[in-house]
Amino acid sequence: MVGSCFASVWSLELLLLLHAQPNRFWATSEIVAELRSSELVVTQSLQDLTNAGLVIGEGDGRVRYASASADLTAFVEKLAHEYRTRPGQVRRMIVSRSSAKLMSFSDAFLIRKLPP
Q1: What is the reported pLDDT for 100?
Q2: Structure pTM?
């Protein structure tokens, strides 16, 4: 399930950062500095997490963790625990999905020999 929920490990890291301080509103620049990421990656990840019902924004552009349901809250709690105890395994699940999508995309450009 984790692999299908996150486009990248950056999205997971961002979610867990916000989840660790659920009452704090973060500016994008603060997240970029904290994660040592790029503004583009953070912006894309925030959009994905907002669409998933895990992040809400203020009118001034700042964001915070806010789960849209009890099920999502339970999922994030379990995910945070798993990432603390087995970070490599969680990362591999996310990366393997991304790798499979990339391989599928690149296969579309292969020149295949047509049957006679």
Answers
A1: 45
A2: 0.76
